[in-house]
Amino acid sequence: MKTVALLSGGKDSVYNLLHCVANGHEPVAVASLGPPAGKDELDSFMYQTVGHSGLATIAQALDLPFFSRAIKGTAVNVGGEYGTREGKEKGKQKENDGDETEDLYELLKEVKEAMPLVQGVSVGAILSNYQRVRVEHVCARLGLTPLAYLWERSQPELLREMVEAGMESVLVKVAGAGLQVEHLGKSLKDMEPTLHRLNKRYELHVCGEGGEYETFTLDCPLFKRHVNLIPSTSCANG
Questions:
Q1: pTM recorded for the entire structure
Q2: Which are the contacts of 109, defined by CB distance < 8 A and separation ≥ 6?
Q3: In the chain, what are the domains?
Q4: Minimal CA–CA distance to 10: which of 64, 47, 62?
Q5: pLDDT digits (tens, 9 = 90+) for 134-156
Q6: Cα end-to-end span (Å), the chain
């Protein structure tokens, strides 16, 4: 089916798109949510926003049209469920006004209006039920099918597969025990032994599912051209 790639720029969302193609789906657009103008990153339950400024470049590397929208909402509804996932609710929902999930609804609604043949949404969720139920809810309201091939996969296996698949993703944020500023800019391949060591020592999630690190993807088998990372200074918070 024709599919929109919901990308953050990180390894998971890009690798899931590889699985979509392997399973016969056709990527026709890239969609992404980022912080409002003037902000580099948001503290969001739902979205990875670090590296958001490079998403248009990834869309160019994929030769796909790019849809983007600023995140206006916050985490208003933080429960384990978000409406229903059967598509009974249509359109906007007053009880969830101001929730950041509704920004995803508006983004995918825009994509569907511009490209009516889109049926699937590529989603890189691995372990977060919070993300999964909200994406499923939004997709149901819009008549779209979420495609989450990484869901609940073994993280060590996924990390190994990503490296073997030729994914060139580099760390752009570190927040986990044992991860240091000097690890920024390192590739998954370079970091794999360190991540396994920190997993044994601190129970760090090797795919960063506990927020230990974020990545940005510079190349993968689907890219028509390599994405170049502009050198920048590191920033420490807290």
A1: 0.88
A2: 142
A3: 2-147 (3.40.50.620), 155-219 (3.90.1490.10)
A4: 47
A5: 899 999 999 999 999 999 999 99
A6: 45
